[in-house]
Design goal:
Blueprint: E1 2-6, H1 10-22, E2 26-30, H2 33-42, E3 47-50, E4 53-54, E5 57-58, H3 59-69, E6 75-79, H4 84-92, E7 97-100, H5 105-145, E8 149-153, E9 159-162, H6 164-170, H7 174-177, H8 188-204, E10 213-219, E11 225-236, E12 241-249, H9 251-273, E13 277-281, E14 287-290, H10 292-297, H11 302-305, H12 310-314, H13 330-337, E15 341-349, E16 355-364, E17 372-377, H14 379-400, E18 406-410, E19 417-420, H15 423-428, H16 432-437, H17 441-444, H18 448-460, E20 467-474, E21 480-491, E22 497-506, H19 508-518, E23 534-539, E24 553-555, H20 557-563, H21 575-578, H22 583-597, E25 603-611, E26 617-629, E27 635-644, H23 646-668, E28 672-677, E29 683-685, H24 687-692, H25 704-709, H26 716-729, E30 732-740, E31 746-757, E32 763-773
Parallel strand pairs: 1-2, 1-3, 3-6, 6-7
Antiparallel strand pairs: 4-5, 8-9, 8-12, 10-11, 11-12, 13-14, 13-17, 15-16, 16-17, 18-19, 18-22, 20-21, 21-22, 23-24, 23-27, 25-26, 26-27, 28-29, 28-32, 30-31, 31-32
Helix pairs in contact: 2-3, 9-14
Length: 777
């Protein structure tokens, strides 16, 4: 706020400037009546501090002129004159207050605050009066110009008017719908609920849908159904009740959300569920991610391999020992030519210096040669991984390039654009190539008033998964567009963030309608976008601890819906939540809340159980952050979301129990599992195999030769001949042999296994079981 100080005493002026600067005011100074009036004509001040004794006249004349110029401007007399006629005279002439020198800083601070507040209220009242006079005409023009469909109905649910957008959306003319029931716009299955809702409003004045954003289906004139987003509002006159609805076709948004979910799921499957060793390379040949299988095979931790030059670490030489330059490596060729490179065998080096032969494929994951993925294992599993990667690439391209919204991927530092969909060119009006060349150029297009906020959010919130922003951009043709931008981090198996993925949508039409309708007489009300999550917003009462039962907390209707309570049963206070928190979760949750509120951390992310009205405890995932703190850094306001995760937790528990049952069944059956890599001679065996051979746990060497050596000597020749015959022309291995236990006793074992072959029919793998039997057949 701006203050004009009118005084000719240098010490007083200097003291006032120091005080007002400290209080956050912008200060101007005038030493004479003439200077004061000149500055008052040129600038708009929030308050004036006026001395009555000035070198070129009486300050009372300045007061009178200021009152004529700006009647609502607060003028505070601050003078050494203390006579009653001066005091009363100034106040009767319109002065806001009269203070004497030397002034009291606390008294001056309080008077200034009241004066600024009064001036602000007067300005708002003037603005509201002016806006009200234009409201009706603006309302009519904006409704017709709106791209969303707007429908008005009377208390009987009969349509009284709608805009051109609604006519285009549903296919009816104005004459065809005026006076007809709203039910003609909805499928038959929704009509009974609609009628009940109208009756409920008539009887009780309450509705579950008014003021909410809901998704359901609409019905066109041709009989086709389509998904819509609906916002309902109601207003009353002296004679009747009226309803308004804002309707948006969300067919494209539903498709975009489905595409994004598929991409996220596909990414998780490839990185965490694949059975092969997988790592990614950027254009410089450095690793961008390493999955646990790859790190385990090479005897590294995943974090040790991230951002490392894999050629120097793992690919030192050719099989004959000669140097293997990076430019000759097929892995790195994929970074530049965008082709899939398959290599039959090569040498990779473990952390301890030993080598392991592998078969691998190096595949570009996106176009333009930006990233390559290396998948390695035996040839059968390699081919399966190759197909999975190729399919994911094609799905990604098909999905990302056929949506009008902008899908983007960057590295965590925001210095490199990994991928940008073609929608960027349509929305930003700039080429994708320009963004690849200068990854920060998208930010240059942001409106100057929004740029600092978005720069801060991109740096600090995208990696937290909390980046959800709206901002304006200026396109090269000078047009302004509104953007809704969301982003979330992608982590590797060690939890480190290595990608930021986002989704930007042009919401200009929506924002224009939203901003225009907000200026009308609140006939149509907007609510925040609907969500399956519940939301809450709480603030601490002055002088009360945050955990007071009566701490005000606004609970969204979705919170009560998830728990089954009405608004009366679940009022807007903290006690509604704390009284239903599971006793075993209470201490842990309160500790998290206290840490966040006392400024040791700004984020609140916790899972706990709440008691529903049906008497069942259900699991919830809560996220929140402090949105306001006092001068001491203590939180005074906090807001967050609540998501029911009971079904997810139950599914995870069922999976754990299923795996445990399988393990117990294998132990109880006294059966061992054998998995033989024919080419390498490696033979994986379960713990049951050692027990069947009478060996101590952990003593089996894990090779085919070790298995043969463990047989009874007289059986080895026949068994090896039978196995060789099976590998040549049979589909399975079926052998019986004896083993000698440490106590000298002979035991008969049977090995039954399936033979897997490559494209040339050569046996590559035998997978089967071994168990004790009574003797030869």
């Amino acid at each position: 706020h701006t203050v004009l100080v009118v005084d000719d005493e240098p010490d007083i002026v200097l003291g006032l400037q120091d005080f007002l600067d400290h209080e956050g005011y912008q200060v101007s100074v005038a030493g004479t009546c003439a200077e004061a009036l000149s500055q008052a004509h040129e600038h708009q001040y929030n308050v004036v501090l006026l001395d009555l004794g000035l070198p070129d006249g009486d300050g009372s004349s300045v007061l009178r002129t200021l009152q004529e110029l700006r009647p609502q401007l607060p003028v505070i007399i601050l003078t050494a004159y203390t006579s009653a006629d001066r005091t009363v005279g100034s106040l009767t002439q319109g002065a806001f207050a009269y203070l004497t020198k030397p002034y009291n800083r606390d008294e001056l601070r309080a008077v200034l605050q009241r004066a600024v507040g009064l001036q602000a209220l007067a300005a708002k009242a003037e603005h509201a009066e002016h806006a009200l006079s234009e409201s009706e005409e603006r309302f009519r023009s904006l409704v017709e110009a709106a791209t969303d469909s707007i429908v008005l109905a009377d208390h009987n649910g009969s349509i009284i008017s709608w805009n051109r957008a609604a006519s285009r959306l549903f296919g009816y003319t104005n004459e065809e719908v005026r006076g007809r029931p709203l039910t003609m716009l909805m499928p038959l299955r929704h009509r009974a609920a609609h009628e009940r809702g109208l009756a409920r409003i008539t009887e009780t004045g309450q509705s579950r849908l008014i003021g909410r954003l809901v998704e359901l289906e609409g019905l066109r004139k041709d009989g086709s159904e389509f998904p819509i987003e609906l916002s309902l509002a109601t207003w009353k006159t002296d004679d009747a009740v009226f309803y308004s609805g804002i309707i948006r076709d969300i067919t494209q948004r539903r498709l975009a959300e489905e595409i994004l979910d598929r991409l996220r799921h596909l990414h998780e499957v490839i990185l965490t569920q694949a059975g092969e060793g997988i790592y990614g390379l950027d254009a410089a040949g450095l690793t961008t991610f390493v999955n646990p299988i790859a790190a385990r095979l090479l005897e590294y931790e995943p974090s040790e391999l991230l951002e490392q030059p894999m050629h120097a670490r793992l690919h030192h030489s050719r099989p004959d020992g000669s140097p293997y330059p990076a430019e000759d490596c097929p892995i790195y060729a994929a970074l530049h030519d965008g082709l899939v490179h398959r290599v039959a065998t090569d040498v990779f080096w473990r952390k301890d210096g030993t080598s392991v032969p592998v078969e691998y494929v190096s595949t570009p994951i996106v176009e333009k040669g930006v990233v390559a993925v290396v998948v390695f294992r035996d040839i059968t599993e390699r081919k399966e991984a190759e197909r999975a990667v190729e399919e994911s690439q094609e799905r990604f391209r098909q999905l990302a390039e056929h949506i009008k919204e902008v899908f983007w991927i960057t590295d965590p530092t925001k210095h490199r654009m990994i991928y940008i969909s073609p929608g960027y060119e349509a929305v930003w009006g700039r080429s994708c190539e320009s963004l690849y060349a200068s990854p920060q150029s998208w930010m240059e297009a942001i409106h100057p008033d929004d740029r600092h906020r978005i720069q801060d959010a991109a740096v600090n919130r995208q990696s937290l998964g909390a980046y959800d922003e709206e901002y304006r951009i200026l396109r090269p043709d000078g047009s302004l567009r509104w953007i809704w931008d969301r982003a979330f981090p992608i982590r590797d198996t060690s939890g480190a963030i290595y990608r930021i993925v986002g989704f930007a949508e042009d919401i200009t039409d929506y924002k224009q309608v939203q901003e225009s309708l907000r200026a009308s007489e609140e006939r149509l009300k907007y609510v925040i976008r609907g969500s399956n999550d519940g939301f809450w917003d709480g603030h601490v009462l002055p002088g009360q601890p945050w955990h007071s039962p009566f701490t005000p907390v606004w609970w969204s209707p979705r919170v009560r819906e998830m728990l089954g309570y009405s608004e009366a049963e679940f009022p807007d206070i903290l006690e509604s939540w704390t009284s239903r928190l599971h006793p075993e979760d209470r201490d842990r949750v309160f500790q998290r809340l206290a840490a966040c509120l006392e400024a040791s951390t700004s984020q609140y992310d916790v899972e706990y159980r709440l008691l529903t009205k049906q008497g069942e405890y259900r699991w919830f995932h809560a996220r929140a952050e402090v949105v306001q703190r006092d001068e001491q850094g203590h939180a005074v306001r906090m807001a967050g979301s609540l998501q029911c995760i009971t079904d997810r937790n139950r599914a995870e528990e069922q999976l754990r129990l299923s795996e445990e049952r399988l393990r117990m069944a294998l132990i109880a059956s006294e059966v061992g599992i054998l998995d033989w890599d024919v080419r390498s001679g490696h033979l994986y065996s379960s713990a049951g195999v050692e027990a069947l051979f009478g060996l101590a746990a952990g003593s089996f060497l894990g090779t085919y030769d070790a298995y043969i050596d463990a047989m009874y000597l007289e059986d080895r020749g026949a068994v090896m001949a039978s196995i060789d015959q099976s590998l040549r022309d049979q589909a399975s291995v079926n052998i019986r042999h004896r083993v000698v236990w440490p106590d000298g006793a002979l035991h008969w074992l049977a090995w039954t296994g399936r033979i897997y072959r490559d494209a040339e029919g050569i046996a590559t793998r035998v997978l089967g079981i071994v168990h004790e039997t009574k003797g030869p057949i």
